[in-house]
Design brief:
Layout (H helix, E strand, L loop, with lengths): L1 H18 L9 H7 L7 H4 L5 H13 L6 H15 L16
Helix pairs in contact: 4-5
């Protein structure tokens, strides 16, 4: 029992860096880091491409699940997510080949 608890605690400690994944700078980054990555890794949302309305629904759902977000922070978070992971957002991958038209 004691070894199992120790294994779980050690696994959690090594998982923490995943929660603090580097996110693009911009208004709302700190709020997203605080509100979103306190419960799950950033990969939960960085792998998505949603419209602004879909991000609003996601943020509202997370608030219902207990995310600590103030009313005046919702729009900032939604705008940050939409800018960086909206349907039209383009994420550059370092070292990826450039496609020419």
């Amino acid at each position: 029992m004691r070894a199992t608890l120790l294994t779980i605690l050690v696994s959690f400690v090594f998982a923490i860096p995943g929660f603090s994944q580097d996110l693009p700078d911009g208004p709302g980054k700190d709020l997203v880091m605080k509100a979103c990555t306190s419960c799950h890794s950033a990969e939960n949302f960085t792998s998505k491409r949603n419209t602004k309305e879909e991000w609003q629904d996601v943020v509202r759902a997370m608030i219902e699940f207990g995310a600590e977000v103030k009313d005046n922070e919702v729009e900032i978070i939604v705008n940050y997510l939409t800018k960086n992971w909206g349907k039209s957002a383009i994420q550059a991958v370092p070292g990826a080949p450039v496609k020419h038209r």
